[in-house]
Structure formats: structure tokens, C-alpha cells
Design goal:
six-stranded mixed sheet; elongated; Rna Polymerase Sigma Factor, Chain: A; single chain; alpha+beta; 11 helices
């Protein structure tokens, strides 16, 4: 199989997008993508008719192996685990044909929900729902029968149904985030009660490297108490801005001149149902890569 420079540029967004959605890690997805291309280049003698399917098979298998070996690491992770945030300009500013910036299946809420799926369930769900692969190709990629893939897909859909109602309307969600910030600053409880679901859950990811809640914070009263407590302790040079993270508006917070945390939201039925605070320095280190290299 001859991999040209044109092939590399053409399939790079697809493979990165697949890897990132499977692993929830920008750095790991980039590494897997490069390794896939390097291995594909060595297969010059093989006659491959469908480069896209073959590259996706190689990428998927590498990611599945990584997922299975990562289970122990995830079990040992300190506190809640959030996906690495991916910075993007507003999604509609990009060529909509680029798989990388396709809205569906890229939000923090969706990627976090993927943690409830087995490795095979993740692969089948993504290949079918996000990348529109037929079951025949999915079966070849993960080396299972068509009928098994259909059952795996159905099972995965049931597990991830909680994010089916997620709002992906950027402008509407951005307006909600602005209202949320203003209500917090003014301690406007009426506005906050309207914006935040009564059963909201906050996931704070510090990875054991910075101070963070080691368990999910549940209920509106507890979440607001935590947020107001944080606001009381912020330094004078505290500043923030709203950025496009995983195709949705998020609050990027800087303290003492450095990136301190990123707040992302799961918005459904015009309310914030989940809040994700990512503070693990390792996950923030590559945040400003606005496109893969």
C-alpha cells in the first residue's frame, strides 16, 4: 500500500478524530495517528483497495489495545476523569467536510459518557454513528460478524442515551454561559436556579496533581456552594474568556498568569445538567493546539 503525502493530508483529520473520540486524549490520538501512518508506509508490498478502511482498521486496533491496557490506569486515577479539552475556533468557521470538527460526538459530555462503554462498543458506535461506516466494513475493522456489530451498536446506544438530548447550538449555549457567568458574579440566585438543573453534577478533574474535588459534586445547592467558595479565593489577576472547546462554548480561566482550568457544560432542555472542571496540568498543557500538526 503506497501512502503519499496527499494521503497523509487527506486522512490525517479522519484518523485523529477517530483516535481522539476513542481515547479522549489529544496527545495519545496524535501518537496513534503517527504510528498508524508509519506502519502503513511499511506495507508497500500489500495490495490494498480501500485505503480509508484499512487505515481506520489499523488506527482502531491500536486505540482498542490502548483502551484495554488503560483500564488499570483509569481505575487508579485520582478523582473524576474528564477528556482532554480540544480548542477549536467556532466550528462553522471550518470546512464542514473536515471530520475533525464535526459537532456530533465531540462534546465533553459525549466523550465522558463514552467511558461507560467497552472498547468494542466505543469503536462500533463511532464508526457507525459518527463516521457512517456500513456494518460490513465495521465488522472487518474490529474482526467480528455483521450481526454481532449490530448488537454491539444497539447496546452502546442504550448506554449513551443520556446525551441524546444534548444541545449543540453554539450561539444559544454561548448565551447561556454568558448568563451563567453574570449570575455568578452578581450572586443572582433566581437566575442561577433557572440556568442550573436541580440535579446537576459537577466533575472536577485534578488528576491528583492539583487540589480538586475527588468525588462528583451532586445537586444544585452543593455545586453552587462549591463555585461560590472558589470565587471567594480567586487572586486579583484572575481572568477568563469564553473559547470554543470541543465545538461548544467553555470558560477558560487564567490565574497568576497561567491557564488554571477549563469549565465545560452539558446543556440539555435549556439547563446545565453537568459541569466539567478540568484542572489537571497535563491535560491543559497542549490545550492551545488549535489544530493537529
Amino acid at each position: 500500500m503506497q501512502i503519499t503525502d496527499e494521503d497523509y493530508q487527506h486522512y490525517k483529520p479522519l484518523l485523529f478524530s477517530l483516535g481522539y473520540r476513542l481515547l479522549g486524549s489529544v496527545m495519545e490520538a496524535e501518537d496513534m495517528m503517527q504510528e498508524t501512518f508509519l506502519r502503513a508506509i511499511k506495507l508497500k508490498e500489500q495490495n490494498i483497495n480501500n485505503k480509508k478502511a484499512y487505515l481506520c482498521k489499523m488506527m482502531t486496533n491500536r486505540c482498542l489495545d490502548a483502551l484495554k491496557s488503560a483500564r488499570y490506569k483509569r481505575e487508579q486515577y485520582v478523582g473524576p476523569w474528564n477528556p482532554e479539552p480540544l480548542l477549536l475556533e467556532k466550528w462553522h468557521a471550518f470546512d464542514p467536510s473536515e471530520t475533525l470538527i464535526k459537532k456530533e460526538g465531540l462534546s465533553i459530555a459525549y466523550l465522558r459518557m463514552m467511558e461507560h462503554l467497552t472498547a468494542d462498543e466505543r469503536a462500533v458506535l463511532l464508526l457507525r454513528e459518527i463516521f457512517d461506516f456500513p456494518y460490513s466494513e465495521i465488522a472487518n475493522i474490529i474482526e467480528k460478524k455483521d450481526e454481532n456489530c449490530r448488537k454491539i451498536y444497539s447496546r452502546a446506544k442504550q448506554k449513551i442515551s443520556l446525551v441524546e438530548g444534548e444541545s449543540l447550538n453554539y450561539e444559544k449555549n454561548e448565551s447561556m454561559v454568558h448568563s451563567f457567568i453574570k449570575a455568578l458574579q452578581l450572586q443572582n440566585m433566581d437566575a442561577l436556579l433557572e440556568l442550573i438543573s436541580e440535579n446537576v453534577t459537577l466533575y472536577s478533574d485534578g488528576g491528583g496533581k492539583v487540589n480538586a474535588a475527588v468525588r462528583p459534586v451532586v445537586s444544585r445547592s452543593n455545586v453552587l456552594a462549591l463555585l461560590f467558595g472558589i470565587l471567594k479565593k480567586v487572586p486579583k489577576d484572575f481572568n477568563f474568556e469564553i473559547k470554543n472547546v470541543n465545538t461548544q462554548p467553555a470558560i477558560v480561566i487564567n490565574m497568576n498568569g497561567t491557564l488554571q482550568s477549563i469549565l465545560s457544560f452539558y446543556i440539555s432542555n435549556d439547563q446545565m445538567n453537568e459541569i466539567y472542571i478540568t484542572m489537571n496540568p497535563e491535560k491543559l498543557a497542549i490545550f492551545y493546539r488549535d489544530k493537529i500538526r
